[in-house]
Amino acid sequence: MLRGKPRRQARDAADRPAQGADPLDPAQEDRVRAVLSLGGVPYGELQDGVQQVRLRLLERAAKGDGAPRDVSAWAAVVASNWAMDWHRARRRQERLGERLAALRPERPEEDGAESRVLSLAVAQGLDELPDGQRQVVVLRFYADLPVRDIAAELGIPEGTVKSRLHTAVRMLRTRLHEEEVV
């Protein structure tokens, strides 16, 4: 019994990459990149996929699990799964975009380029607002919640919600006029 334990520890130590060493050799990395590419992941996303496979291998070693019997095969399976996850996320994002577009009222008189410029300016303006003001603006105008519900959900007085909305809208309006967007 004692005799097998040191052998197992030695074998486990041999399975783990040296600290600081890359767990994927160049051939394995090329194979992972090929699996991702054949899985439909765009070129610009391939390095992220390779890094995710590398991370999974490092996490496995950190948990104390030994290296897989065939690291190359294991990495290829993980890369294939990551490619499927990438496609699921993209489809989910597309569906979300479609739902948001369906919520937007049609305005045929609106020029698409002007609308994009306005949307970008508003988004940048929201980014510059303090967190509390941004939060109430999003809840009021994008989630379409009444002031009373916002106050209840955030646990703040209605007057505070109204004050934050007033200040935020004034700041956004000033920004849009300064940039001559409206």
From TrEMBL:
GO terms for molecular function: DNA binding; sigma factor activity. The keyword Amino-acid biosynthesis does not apply. The keyword Transcription applies. It comes from the Bacteria. Gene3D superfamilies: 1.10.1740.10, Winged helix-like DNA-binding domain superfamily/Winged helix DNA-binding domain. Keywords: DNA-binding, Sigma factor, Transcription, Transcription regulation. Residues 126-173 form the RNA polymerase sigma-70 region domain. It holds the Pfam family Sigma70_r4. Residues 1-29 are annotated as: Disordered. Transmembrane segments: none annotated. GO terms for biological process: DNA-templated transcription initiation. PANTHER family: ECF RNA POLYMERASE SIGMA FACTOR SIGL, RNA POLYMERASE ECF-TYPE SIGMA FACTO. Belongs to the sigma-70 factor family. ECF subfamily. This is RNA polymerase sigma-70 factor (ECF subfamily).
